[in-house]
Design goal:
This protein is of the alpha+beta class. Helix content is 45%, strand content 22%. Residues 352-366 have low confidence and may be disordered.
């Protein structure tokens, strides 16, 4: 009863007659160490019988001939096995027999266990993927809401610009026109007023052009931004003694910038070139624009008279540039010294990952 309980999971079809050998033996994995005793029927000289054996599925070579009639096989992997043994009698006669049995795999190596593993891995992968997609969608929604807020802020800014800048210039033009009418009999004074009116009109037209360019979605691409930069540089430097070069690495730059970033980046470029043209007394200007690891870099270098950056200045140009970059998490650094020119370096975080690109990057890095 105790023996039967102990080996209840050992399966066999019965015991062969005459020799008590189990037929079609199937062993569970926990009984994967097997000891087999065997003996040849040689009543006259049993000690002179020599044996050789092997277990097919466990080892391929026959054992060395010997009188040992016990074979032990330990830690047997799951599979079908055939034990073969042959005996050489004292008279030089060979006899051979075999016995087959099976060892079952451990429960964690069965087909149904692997099915569970696959289902678990697929389920975990699905859950992790869903969580990642939800997080990406949430981030995209946050970015979308931020974009809407930026657009609303941009509308307010445009309204303020139109009211303050353009409105003030139109008021000034109206005042100059009234003053000019009072000097209609003084041609020289009248000419001065007309020149000032013409300058105000030109400045107003440039301001309106900047506003229209900023709000046009066709200009969101960096290609359009750099093209406008080239046009503006030509407007400022052509016809002067200043030679300039603009190098852009289009492949490293982001495809698009937001309205606010695009506006402030162009303002920084415009302000820098105006300062060089008015104050630097330079003959060469080199401009480089590229992207590295999600950050846009712009470097503007001139060979002008330079200035001492440690001396305070009443001009607000550099302060405005720094404020505009810091607003977007960027930086502006100025390196200059007397008679050694100046270098303005701008860093602006620029890349916004799309949902599709974010998922691909996540799977690739996982």
């Amino acid at each position: 009863s105790a023996m039967r309980k102990k080996f209840h999971d050992v399966k066999l079809d019965g015991v062969t007659p005459f020799y008590p050998v189990p037929a079609n033996l199937v062993l569970p994995h926990k009984y994967n160490t097997v000891t087999i005793d065997f003996a040849a029927i040689e009543p006259a000289l049993p000690k002179q019988v020599s044996y050789q054996y092997k277990l097919e599925g466990y080892n391929a070579e026959w054992s060395s001939p010997g009188n040992n009639s016990t074979a032990v096989f330990g830690n047997m992997p799951a599979g079908d096995y055939t034990f073969r043994v042959k005996a050489l009698s004292s008279f030089g006669a060979w006899s051979e027999t075999s016995y087959s049995f099976r060892v079952l795999p451990a429960w964690w190596a069965t087909w149904w266990a692997y099915s569970i593993y696959i289902l678990l891995i697929a389920g975990i992968g699905f859950i992790v993927n869903r969580i990642h997609i939800i997080n990406l969608k949430r981030k995209q929604e946050e970015k979308f809401q931020a974009m809407l807020a930026t657009q609303e802020e941009e509308r307010k800014r445009i309204s303020i610009d139109l009211h303050d800048d353009i409105g003030a210039r139109l008021t000034n033009i109206n005042l100059l026109s009234a003053l000019g009418q009072n000097k209609i009999n003084e041609p020289q004074q009248m000419g001065e007023y007309l020149k000032r009116i013409s300058s105000e009109i030109q400045t107003s037209a440039e301001a309106l052009d900047d506003i229209v360019w900023n709000i046009d979605s066709k200009n969101d691409t960096l290609e359009e931004v750099t093209a406008r930069m080239r046009r503006y540089a030509a407007t400022v430097f052509d016809g002067t003694a200043i030679e300039y070069t603009i190098k852009t690495d289009e492949n490293s730059l982001p495809e698009k910038l937001s309205i606010g970033k695009r506006r402030d980046l162009f303002f920084v470029f415009k302000e820098s070139l105006n300062n060089i043209q008015k104050h630097a007394m330079a003959t060469e200007v080199n401009i480089q624009i590229e992207g590295k690891q999600g950050v846009l870099f712009m470097k503007i270098k001139d060979n002008g008279k330079g200035f001492d950056t440690s001396i305070p200045t009443h001009r607000n140009g550099l302060k405005n540039i720094q404020k505009r970059m810091e607003k977007w998490g960027g930086k502006c650094s100025v390196t200059s010294s007397a008679n050694k020119g100046s270098i303005i370096e701008i860093t602006l975080p620029d890349l916004t990952t799309s949902l599709k690109r974010g998922r691909w990057s996540w799977f690739k890095n996982s």
